[in-house]
Specification:
By secondary structure, the chain is an alpha+beta fold. It is 28% helix and 34% strand. The protein starts with a strand and ends with a strand.
Length: 277
């Protein structure tokens, strides 16, 4: 049985300039606090890798003055973790906030978020938006010690049927994935999220994680639709989802099966179930 450890009031973010040369405002930290506390608890991942199991969770978020400089503020939380040392646990935490830069999401069908330092390039964001009507672009801001190489593309239109989805994929999603690869290079990757509606009428994300370096072979329309249908079948029989509601369902591409496979179900209350093949 795993031995659980806890660390109270751990600093998670602050207003001081970070290693990327950026800083947060107190208002932003308060927004994060309210957002996280509304969830109850936030899963603690490993090394910012969405495909790895969570090793604990964080709750009781607050914004307090910095102990060494009261002109600055820190976002703190209580961390509960197991099977890893605290340094590994903290390296895995990322608040993963999407910030819309080119406008709000009203009447948008696709939202694209790029990591530091790429979200500081207005030219890149403009190129993404100009690919097609209904696309917005912004920042995928994460607590990283170094620049990240993963962007995020989200389809905001609910999946209804394969024929209608084909048009959105071919005219918006696929061009976005190609643009990110062309502009940011082969070493850059993109995760894809399709929004869906759960038993409680909640909106949750179906999160597709490709095989890094082989994204083109993973992000094929038929494989995405098969992944969505896999999740639909699972959710239809998920009694916990009926009770708690869903936050995100993660799928990872398997080179063995040549398809996306279910790996994690995260519920609205922050609880998770890992599915191992």
């Amino acid at each position: 049985m795993a031995e659980w450890k806890e660390l109270k009031s751990q600093i998670l973010a602050g207003t001081k300039i970070d290693s990327q040369g950026e800083s947060n405002t107190k208002e932003f930290l308060l927004w994060l606090k309210n957002r996280f506390n509304a969830r109850g608890k936030i899963p603690l991942g490993q090394q910012h890798d969405m495909s790895k199991e969570a090793v604990g969770h964080i709750n009781n978020f607050d914004v307090i003055p910095d102990k060494t400089d009261e002109s600055h503020w820190n976002l703190v939380g209580d961390i509960y973790f197991h099977d890893v040392d605290i340094d590994s646990a903290l390296r895995g935490f990322s608040y993963s906030v999407n910030i819309d830069i080119t406008g709000d999401l009203e009447n948008k069908e696709v939202a694209v978020y790029v990591p530091f330092p790429h979200y500081n390039s207005s030219d890149l964001l403009e190129e993404i938006v100009e690919l097609s009507d209904g696309i917005s672009a912004g920042a995928w801001k994460k607590k990283n010690a170094s620049p990240d190489y993963i962007s995020l593309a989200i389809s905001l239109a609910l999946f209804v049927a394969a024929p209608a989805y084909t048009n959105i994929w071919n005219t918006k999603i696929s061009p976005v994935l190609s643009k990110l690869k062309d502009r940011l290079g082969n070493s850059h990757s993109t995760d894809f999220v399709q929004v869906a509606k759960g038993h409680l009428e909640e909106i949750y994300g179906i999160y597709f994680i490709p095989e890094r370096g082989r994204e083109e072979g993973c992000f094929i329309l038929e494989k995405i639709i098969a992944g969505i249908e896999l999740v639909n079948r699972h959710v239809a029989n998920d009694e916990i989802a009926r009770e708690k509601g869903l936050h995100i369902v993660k799928l990872k591409y398997s080179l063995r099966s040549q398809e996306f496979e279910l790996i994690v179900v995260e519920y609205l209350d922050g609880s998770i179930i890992n599915h191992k093949n």
